[in-house]
Each structure stands twice: as C-alpha cells, then as structure tokens.
Amino acid sequence: MRRIFLFPFFLAVAFTSFSQNLNDTIISIPFVSLSYSPQIPGGDFAKRFGFTNNIGLNVGIKTANNWLFELEGNFLFSKNVKEDSILNYIRTSEGYIISASGDAVNVLIYQRGFTETILVGKVIPFKTSNKNSGLALKFGVGFMHHKIKIENQDNNVPALTKENLVYVDRLTMGLSLKQFIGYQQFSNNKRINFNIGLELTEGFTQGMRDWQMNYGVYRDKRFDFLIGIRAGWFLPIYRKAPEEYYLD
Question: Which CATH class is domain 3-236?
C-alpha cells in the first residue's frame, strides 16, 4: 500500500532464524502479517466518521527472548461520513449538486486514512508446550492522517475538480499511539499462526488546511480515538536448519 509497509532491515533479518522444534525452544521468528480490525470511533473522530474498516500489514520479528519489534501500516476506509454538510455551499435550494452541463449529479463521500506505527511488545507464554505463543502486549508510536474523499460523476462539477478538493477534504495529521492486548500463536506445526486481541489507537492530530469551505481556517487541534478487535494471520519466515553429517 505504502512504502512504510516494507522495510529492508526486516528482510535481512528474515534469514537469521533456523527451523527448530517449537515445542520446547524459544526461537527468533521473523514474520509478515496481514490483519483486519472493525473499529468504533471516539473523540473528535466520532464527530466526523462512523464505523471504520482497518486493514493492516506488518513486518516484524519475535526474538529468542519473546520480544516483539514491528513496523505496521494501516489503511482506514469507510462510507460512514457524518459531516456531509461540507458540500452545502454548492447545493441548490432543493439539495442537488449541478454539473457543468446543468445536470444533477451523484456525489459520493468517503473516509480515507492511514496510520504508520513502530511497535514494541512482549509475548508471555501460557504453557511450556509452546513457549513461542501466549499473551501478547504491544505499544506503538506513529503517525495518523485522514481526510474526506469526494468522488463526483465524470469529474464534471467545477467546484469539485482535483484542484478544488483541497478546500473541502478536512485533511488531518498528527502523532498517534497504539496499544494491543491479545493472544498470539506460532504453532508447533508452523502452519497455524495468528493473533487476535483488543486494539486502541489515539491520534493527537491537527487540521492541515489554511481554508475549508463551510468552515474557515482549519488548524484545529483534535483527539481522534479508535477501538476495535484486530485479527491477523502470520507468515513466519524460517530458514532450513543445516544438515548434519556423521563420519565413521
């Protein structure tokens, strides 16, 4: 999705781990994971948007001490935009938006956003039969940005050309924090690898536009909050253990 999703360091680390018996050994496991979280907004985010979808891509490593180090990128998207009044300045008295050719057009409004986060965490095993799995606790620091995406039929509304959309998109950016608590598994058969848990995201953001229609100067300080259940599927990267040779 974005460059932040990939990081050469983790690709280099990926070849440092050897295939071992996970039943009785804590090993270093580089991994890539894809995850999804349905999220409920809070704070200032809830004033503008409703239910939000969140797709994440992680690259990381679980060390031989069960520490977690990850880079995560998330794509936020939704049709639940509450602030549809942003286009009132170009609506007719009957509520229509008129194209350059004089026809009423359908204008679609979406939420779009990204977060990029560096995460540090710890896996606390529940049992000795698999010391690479257990309670996962993670904390992250990163960056959040979101806006309102507007699509109009055939791009035929003069007020909503690409150049003019910056005056209505409510672009917002800022620092973000993330916390995760849940269960993470690297299975003994190395095939069923996943995590699931509660995730919180807090954005300490600010409006990034000098002027917005139906608003004015948009430099407001905001607190954007998201809570949801995240479930992810892991692809661990193992390297074959070296073959053993015996001499008579």
Answer: mainly beta
